């Protein structure tokens, strides 16, 4: 891309004119203590920072933003950092997912409204990354992302922990009576030793890895630990690159986020056994650039992509070990025959230019394509009379013997019903039962919380049962596991067949055949649905109302319908 004249810069529309408006804009910057020299003929790089004391995963972002600024200044740009709302997976209620679209709107409108020539996105915790990508994609100003990196591995009684994965495991052991409350308290103090996002291939690491596969960050940066010196130097390099992007006017997100880039992202997702949440975020992101990505594309790519990363929850290691084995670049390099290697990235070069020098697979953390850890990808799509528009299962984290299963339903009306009755000694349930949770989807919950890993009844846990088939219109944490069918679409609250299931109905799951059927005659399903009374909306005002009125179903990514790119939409590049 050719260099622009300083007068071509977007920010020059604010700072260039020798009139009263230009005067007011320039005084606003000088009021912050900058000289005229700082804004004269110089690209302005906005740093969208999701730092917040409410988001432990992103708590080191002030330091990273400083390193980005250093890079911008070295390259002759003016860095201006701005806050956005931030989404912390652990603390936000009812669910960080309910606010992903709000954060995306904040990011989009901040970029659009201010005199910025290029953007550096700083995101880490689960929802911050897709929210920033979605907002930046819609604003379509040249953008590069710097992800926050995983926290250091935690240790408990000498054993390395996956923050999420092991929390679920030990919580079940506590309920099963095999560990004590004291043990569990000790785990609490050990679980999160440093800043950074979750340390296994949960949603955060999946999304940050996908950023590299999409070509939206500098190559080799996705897996660098949060507190590693190289993350700060990557931040500096990102700042330098942002200035080059500002000067050349690109690439813009719409240049990078092509169909090929999405294929590459999905291939990586499958190869690392990544989070099912990524399916939703990629469906939403694609629609921000006018690409109607379909759920079936995930299944097609999953079928042809072996799992070559041995990381939790699908494998054994943490992102720290993946980094030492060459990181996502090494995974991408091995995947080369399955990728669109020529896809353009924010470097202005191809994806393969970025991973060319990555190391070969070590055979332990990263395998070769010919000797993979699994022959197909981690996520499968099923559909049938219980999920006409599809549902997903993370088969790499499921019990192989349950991937084909027929059993009687035990239905819970919502999460409160589940909480009241799951450990009821009178609940008729065996290890062959299929647990069904409804009214937990995008509009029903609302916000589609991570309730999909339904708890196993204590009675079964004490008998040694650790997995049974579970079905819901909810999502599941990227660190969770089990034979859980998620994202059933359409959800119960908008009249999906999940609303028609009754206790004792037989449900057939056959992942190999991609089937999920309610074995009840279709006319009976329809009769029951016609009689069903939809639950009352949970919000009557404010953002919650906007959410339930406009959120799309899981198979479209749960974005707001009015945020998807319009077919005839022209980029709005003029500020006023
Ligand atoms: Fe923030 Fe897991 S809680 S990444
Ligand atoms: Mg998570």
From TrEMBL:
Would you say which domain of life the source belongs to?
Bacteria
Q: Which UniProt keywords apply?
A: 2Fe-2S, Amino-acid biosynthesis, Branched-chain amino acid biosynthesis, Iron, Iron-sulfur, Lyase, Metal-binding
Q: Does the keyword Metal-binding apply?
A: yes
Q: Which GO terms describe its molecular function?
A: 2 iron, 2 sulfur cluster binding; dihydroxy-acid dehydratase activity; metal ion binding
Task: Report the leader peptide range.
Answer: none
Query: In its UniProt record, which GO terms are filed under biological process?
Result: branched-chain amino acid biosynthetic process
| All copies of domain Dihydroxy-acid/6-phosphogluconate dehydratase C-terminal, residue ranges | 364-558
Dihydroxy-acid/6-phosphogluconate dehydratase N-terminal domain: which residues?
42-353
Q: Name one Pfam family in it.
A: ILVD_EDD_N
What EC number is given for this enzyme? Answer: 4.2.1.9
Note the InterPro entries from the entry.
Answer: Dihydro-acid_dehy_C, DiOHA_6PGluconate_deHydtase_CS, ILV_EDD_C, ILV_EDD_N, IlvD/EDD_N, Sugar_Degrad_Dehydratases
Q: Which family does it belong to?
A: Belongs to the IlvD/Edd family.
Quote the NCBIfam families the UniProt record gives: PRK06131.1
Question: In its UniProt entry, what is this protein called?
Answer: Dihydroxy-acid dehydratase
The record lists the organism as: Kineococcus aurantiacus
């Amino acid at each position: 891309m050719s260099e622009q004249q300083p007068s071509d810069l977007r920010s020059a529309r604010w700072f260039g004119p020798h009139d009263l408006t230009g005067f007011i804009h320039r005084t606003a910057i000088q009021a912050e203590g900058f000289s005229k020299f700082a804004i004269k003929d110089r690209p302005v790089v906005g740093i969208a920072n999701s730092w917040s004391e409410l988001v432990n995963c992103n708590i080191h972002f002030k330091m990273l933003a400083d390193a980005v600024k250093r890079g911008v200044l070295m390259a002759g740009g003016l860095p201006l950092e701005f806050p956005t709302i931030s989404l912390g997976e652990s603390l936000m209620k009812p669910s960080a997912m309910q606010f992903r679209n709000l954060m995306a709107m904040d990011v989009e409108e901040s970029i659009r409204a201010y005199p910025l020539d290029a953007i550096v996105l700083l995101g880490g915790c689960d929802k911050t990354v897709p929210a920033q990508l979605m907002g930046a994609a819609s604003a379509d100003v040249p953008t590069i992302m710097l992800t926050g990196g995983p926290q250091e591995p935690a240790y408990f009684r000498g054993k390395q922990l996956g923050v999420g994965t092991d929390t679920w495991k030990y919580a079940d052991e506590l309920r099963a009576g095999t560990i004590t409350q004291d043990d569990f308290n000790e785990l609490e103090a050990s679980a999160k030793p440093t800043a950074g996002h979750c340390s296994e291939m949960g949603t955060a690491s999946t999304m940050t890895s996908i950023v590299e596969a999409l070509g939206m960050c500098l190559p080799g940066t996705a897996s660098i630990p949060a507190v590693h010196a190289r993350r700060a130097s990557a931040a500096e390099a990102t700042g330098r690159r942002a200035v080059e992007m500002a000067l050349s006017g690109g690439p813009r997100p719409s240049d990078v986020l092509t169909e090929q880039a999405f294929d590459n992202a999905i291939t990586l997702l499958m190869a690392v056994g990544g989070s099912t949440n990524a399916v939703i975020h990629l469906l939403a992101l694609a629609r921000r650039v006018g690409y109607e990505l379909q759920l079936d594309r995930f299944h097609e790519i999953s079928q042809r992509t072996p799992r070559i990363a041995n990381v939790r929850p699908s494998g054994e290691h943490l992102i720290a070990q993946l980094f030492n084995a060459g990181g996502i670049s090494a995974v991408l390099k091995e995947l080369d025959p399955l990728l669109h290697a020529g896809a353009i990235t924010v470097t202005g070069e191809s994806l393969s230019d970025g991973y060319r020098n990555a190391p070969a697979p070590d055979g332990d953390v990263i395998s070769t394509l010919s000797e993979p850890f699994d022959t197909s990808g981690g996520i499968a799509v099923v559909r049938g009379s219980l999920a006409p528009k599809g549902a997903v299962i993370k088969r790499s984290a499921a019990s192989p013997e349950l991937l084909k299963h027929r059993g009687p339903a035990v239905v819970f009306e919502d999460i409160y019903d589940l909480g009241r009755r799951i450990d009821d000694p009178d609940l008729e349930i065996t290890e062959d039962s299929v647990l069904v949770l409804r009214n937990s989807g995008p509009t029903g919950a609302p916000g589609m919380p991570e309730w999909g890993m339904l708890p196993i009844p204590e009675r079964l846990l004490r008998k040694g049962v650790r997995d049974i088939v579970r079905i819901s219109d909810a999502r599941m944490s990227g660190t969770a596991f089990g034979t859980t069918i998620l994202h059933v679409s359409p959800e119960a609250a908008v009249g999906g067949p999940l609303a028609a299931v009754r206790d004792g109905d037989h449900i057939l799951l056959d992942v190999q055949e991609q089937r999920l059927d309610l074995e009840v005659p279709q006319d009976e399903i329809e009769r029951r649905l016609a009689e069903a009374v939809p639950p009352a909306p949970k919000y009557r005002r404010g953002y919650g109302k906007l959410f339930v009125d406009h959120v799309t179903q899981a198979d479209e990514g749960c974005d707001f319908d009015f945020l998807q790119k319009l077919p005839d939409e022209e980029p709005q590049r003029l500020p006023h």
